[in-house]
Design goal:
alpha/beta; four-stranded mixed beta sheet; two-stranded parallel ribbon; 38% helix
Length: 191
Amino acid sequence: VVLDYSPASLALVREQARARGLTVHLVQADALAMPFRDGAFAVVFHQGLLEHFRDPMPLLRENTRVTRRGGRVVVDVPQTVHLYTLMKKMLIAIDRWFAGWETQFTPGALERRLREAGLTVRRTYGDWMVPGLAYRVLRELLKRGTGVRLPLEPRGPGWWEHGWRAWRAWLSHRRWALYTCHVIGTVAERP
């Protein structure tokens, strides 16, 4: 089930589902008043949504309402302590950010919000920007300034990619490493 307020967004999901041979139930509705019964879903997931609400609690409470007991709510958001966030804030200030207004969360702040919504936090995770921010900025500057197009995801030597995967695996088990990620998420359970 995919819920979105925008018919254009749902049309994109429909096209992608058809191209992959998937069956998806599309619902055009407001995420703050979902047309589903209490406890309708085992898993509720959203990415790139919570950060656009000045008050995230109504959305999180609605997520809790439609999640069955023992079910999971999974929320991905931008992380506060990252160079990406600083760049985003500067672009928002000069009205040049592509996604409009948005905020971000620290791991502790996201966990607190989910607890306030009546959920039990099970784990918080993070992910790193690949390719990195410096490469992405360089790629965009070259494209706009000179028309030179770098690949979206450059391939490095095999030893580099293997080393990066091993480093990420080691970091993924350290709470402090969440503050090096540009995106974090929390898995919470409805008691």
